[in-house]
Amino acid sequence: MDDEHVWERYSRQMLFAPVGREGQKRLLDSRVAVIGLGALGTVLANNLARAGVGYLKLVDRDFVEASNLQRQILFDESDVEDNLPKSIAAVNKLKKINSQIRYEGLVEDLNFTNIFDILEDIDLVVDGTDNLETRYLMNEACVKLKLPWIHGACAAGSGTAFTIRPGETACFACLWGEAGGQVGETCDTAGILGPLPSIVASLQSVEAIKLLTGASAALQGKLLFFDVWENSITCAEVPKRDGCRVCSREDFQYISGEKQLRSTYLCGRDAVQVLPPVKLSLSLKDLGEKLAPLGRVFVSPYLVKFSTGPHELIIFSDGRALVKGTSDEKIARSLYSRYLGA
């Protein structure tokens, strides 16, 4: 594709003086990881693809369901019908939006065993996740790698955004301390207003463009908190925490594997994710044949869906499974052991 055609695509963005042609070149040379392809992540990926970020690595552990369509803008009903993993469905859509840039879709759970492989060639990480443990993991990896990342979160009618630059700003552990669970409300307990993630992720996207084009002086620099229902916006300074375990003492408990979970209750879902005790490489076809006499089975190139009684197991080739129909992690692990033998 000729250069003139490339530049025409981004001509209106380049007319914005702080970006210009040089800023657009930087975007096209940039490599960004979007972690989580839910409500925030789909907006982030969409915005960054349209902005011309040259390479997007899209990481998500889940597949598309009907309840996602209210707010997860890259998905449609055909993705639900096809049982597509979110990262695959997102790449399929984005290629139709901007075929000039490169994508990599990973159907993986981000954890201490794979995070450095995923982030090793990345310039910036953007947070589309829905749980605190993954954010602590990302924070530790980014601090260790001195890699900037942009946090975002939302539930009910409120959201937050904060840009973290290791060595220059407070880190995520400075912000939230050593909280042991989800901070504040979740979409599971409080629901979520459909347009809200688009607002949060759009703010994250602007911060990403500032960082990638070298406009660090224009960064927000503060924690932004807003409530779209109550029409309030607050900006708060986040000082570095004296003796912070992560950015001060470099005590990395999540990336070392010291803190890890074999099972995790999924926000907004009557489901639990269960991880195998060791990384596996399953033949989905063989697994489907094994489970077929025991219940209803659907096999695709990406996953096996197995229904038995009130429960459904969605099993991926790495041995990871989503167990639907329960919020009890003991029940989920028991079902995993019964049908996968691990």
Overall description:
The chain has 13 helices and 14 strands. It has helices at residues 3-9, 11-15, 20-28, 39-51, 77-81, 86-97, 115-119, 132-145, 172-176, 187-190, 196-212, 284-291, 329-340; strands at 31-35, 55-60, 102-107, 124-127, 149-155, 158-164, 223-227, 232-236, 263-265, 271-274, 296-299, 303-308, 311-316, 321-324. Strands 3-2-1-4-5-6-7-8 form an eight-stranded mixed β-sheet, with helices on both faces. Helix 4 packs across helix 11 (196-212). The protein starts with a helix and ends with a helix. The model has no long low-confidence stretch (mean pLDDT 92).
CATH superfamily of the largest domain: NAD(P)-binding Rossmann-like Domain
Beta fraction of the residues?
15-25%
Order of helices and strands: HHHEHEHHEHEHEEHHHEEEEHEEEEH
Helix content: 25-40%
